[in-house]
Amino acid sequence: MRRCFLTVFFLLYAASAALLQNTLNQTSLTEVTNATLNANERKLRSTYLVKRLPPNLIQEAVDMYLEKHCKFVGRGAYGEVYLLRMLMEQPVILKVIKIPQNPHGGYDEKIIDKRTTMVRKEVQHLRAVDQFLGWGHNHSGTTHYILIRYMGDSLQTVMKIDPRHFTDDRVVWEMQDDAILRYIRKYPGILHRDSHPENFVYHRVAAGKSPVDGRMHWQAELIDWGLAIHTGEGTIPAVSQPQIISENIRVT
């Protein structure tokens, strides 16, 4: 009788643990409510859905950038990246691409056209992988702005929050490989081509910790699609016309 009771107990326990693990694996970050997120989780909340974007969203982002209400994140080959908090305190990324001047202090039309084409392709790729929020350029077309979904934090940042998880290089490499394969499966028409460590960010994908090993649940994401190419498979989303951005700082 006791053996039967123990057998039933362990079967129920195993079923409950499996159900809990499956639920944790399938619960996306956007489905987790603020009530279940602690302070660190809210800080790292990386993916979110905005049903209707305000038409002046990109202008508001540029205003915040010009007024220095932003945080410098990094600098690439063609632009600078800034973190802004807007949309009900949701973080977003603003990429600023400035056309270089010639030695005479002017601008070469060929360089402007080449850089504009490059920016348009990046916008196209960001739309294809659901990371695009808006774009525009100033009246002269010499500075381009791309508003991008905030996908997560750098490895250096998340290591401070969950060092047990991220100090194991093998775990990090597995997360990066998983991200590459996930994007290939989900967006088969786009090839990233620039998956070095700095182009991965990380975010929590569920509240709580794993009942198996006690670890937090993390997921890697690929960012910076400037060097991506279209493989010819599927279709690439059309790109809307850029918004003309005013660079006049607001007077309050």
Detailed description of the structure:
There is one protein chain. The protein has 252 residues and is of the alpha+beta class. The protein is 35% helix and 23% strand. The strands form 3 sheets. A 6-stranded mixed β-sheet has the order 1-2-3-5-4-10, sandwiched between helices. The radius of gyration is 22 Å and the shape is globular. The termini are far apart. The model is unreliable at 1-51 (pLDDT under 50).
Brief summary of the model shown:
Helix content is 35%, strand content 23%. It has a six-stranded mixed beta sheet with strand order 1-2-3-5-4-10, with helices on both faces. A two-stranded antiparallel ribbon has the order 6-9. A two-stranded antiparallel sheet has the order 7-8. The N terminus is likely disordered.
User: Can you list the strand order of the major beta sheet?
Assistant: 1-2-3-5-4-10
The value of Rg in angstroms is 22 Å
Along the chain, the helix and strand elements come as: HHHEEEHEEHHHEEEEE
- Count of separate DSSP helical elements: 7
Shape: globular
Mean pLDDT, to the nearest integer, reads: 78
> Which structural class fits the helix and strand makeup?
alpha+beta
Biggest β-sheet strands, sense, barrel = 6 strands, mixed
Q: Approximately how much helix is present in the residues?
A: 25-40%
Distance linking N and C termini: 78 Å
Poorly predicted regions: 1-51
User: Which strand-content bin applies to the residues?
Assistant: 15-25%
Number of strands: 10
